[in-house]
Amino acid sequence: MIIVGIPAYNEEKHIANVVREAKKYCDRVVVVDDGSKDHTSELASQAGAEVLVHLRNMGKGQSLRDLFLYAAEIGADILVTMDGDEQHDPAEIPSLVNAIVGGADIASGSRFLKQEVNTSMPTYRRFGNSMLNSLTISNALGLTDTQCGFRAYRASVLRSILPSEMGMGADTEILAKAAEHRLKIVEVPVSVRYGDDTSTYNPVFHTLDVLASALKHYSLRHPLIFYGVPGFALLVAGLTTGFYAATEYVTTHYLSVVLSLLSATLLLTGLISISTGLILFTIITAVRTNTLTQNPQPILIPPTPRVKDETGRIS
After folding, report:
1. Looking at the domain assignment, is residue 310 inside a domain?
2. Are residues 78 and 195 in the same domain?
3. Residue 39 lies in domain
4. CB within 8 Å of 144: residues ≥ 6 apart
5. Is residue 293 a part of any domain in this protein?
6. How many Å apart are CA 269 and CA 96, to the nearest integer?
7. What is the mean pLDDT of residues 265-293?
8. Quick one: pLDDT band at residue 124, thresholds 50, 70, 90?
9. Are residues 258 and 188 in the same domain?
10. pLDDT given at position 284
11. Which position has the higher pLDDT, 206 or 143?
12. How do residues 62-76 score in pLDDT, each as one tens digit?
């Protein structure tokens, strides 16, 4: 069973078209209405989608998390995620699905493998995506596009890559977790429509959010490395500075206040950094993000039934 999942926030202008087109290439369409203030839920349901409704806006990451859990719960074989703003072409869903059928665990769409997309993408978007691709830790995989939300997943791996990040950094976190679990990821060329720039997310905020999420993810996954290595370097620098200050005092009987304060500052900062890493490592090992289960469960709205009117037409 192939499921298409669509996170959506205030997408009443586009969601019905996306649902209708996606239904041609899958068994079921599930839309997560992330606290929209318009008619996204109603229009998605009328177009034939099942709708999971958040009573308040919780972010794209939580929407993806709910889609992953729902797809696993109903026994899907493949989950395809795409945006609800008509930037992605539903006709390309089979290409992603075929990559999963061919043995991949994740088929990630890449907008940079098609030349026409590269040339039509707004300059600020191309620059932002290139920077994120270079800086995010997930790109140790050598991917050309780490931020595309048009992906397919083998359902059996969904629970192992559930995002804990609630914001836009979830796409990066998913890839990072996939790398940790040594999942097979392939890229599939996909097109994208920008036109009047339908994205509802501010590109600057998006970039900063993803970078902050990547740093947070790495600091929580590897706190001893993230805090311990800089802390150890600071300790070495503090000891070295203190050694020079002590040597100068022994040979000249002059105590350098600057070197002494610098040494003390470096040593104290290094100890704090190492202690932070140890404390986080202990807490994370014990807790492992169990508080995520406290998030309110989405409300399920089934597709609106289509019935025949008095003339025999389906409405």
Report:
1. no
2. yes
3. 2-221
4. 110, 112, 113, 133, 187
5. no
6. 48
7. 77
8. very low
9. no
10. 66
11. 143
12. 999 999 999 999 999
